[in-house]
Amino acid sequence: MGEETVRILYENLVFKKDLASVKEEMPQISRAYVEEKRIN
């Protein structure tokens, strides 16, 4: 997952769900993003 992918996922969460849901899901996206950075 590149930066663009993370940004798109975040925007999709913001548009489709309430902010509480976004806050719950963002840590998972961030973790995946960090894992990607560590691998590359």
How does this structure look, described?
This protein is mainly α and 40 residues long. It has one domain. The protein is 88% helix and 0% strand. α1 runs antiparallel to α2. The longest helix has 21 residues, at 19-39. It is elongated, with a radius of gyration of 10 Å. The mean pLDDT is 72.
How are the secondary structure elements laid out?
Blueprint: H1 3-16, H2 19-39
Helix pairs in contact: 1-2
Backbone shape: elongated
Mean pLDDT metric: 72
* Main structural class: mainly alpha
- Helix content estimate: over 70%
Assembly of the depicted chains = single chain
**Main beta sheet, described?**
none
Number of helices: 2
| Series of secondary-structure elements, N-terminal to C-terminal | HH
Q: Count structural domains.
A: 1
Tell me what portion of residues adopts beta-strand conformation: under 5%
Straight-line distance between termini: 11 Å
How many β-strand runs? Answer: 0
Radius of gyration: 10 Å
Descriptive keywords:
mainly alpha, elongated, 2 helices, about 40 residues
At a glance:
By secondary structure, the chain is mainly α. It contains two helices and no strands. Helix 1 (3-16) runs antiparallel to helix 2.
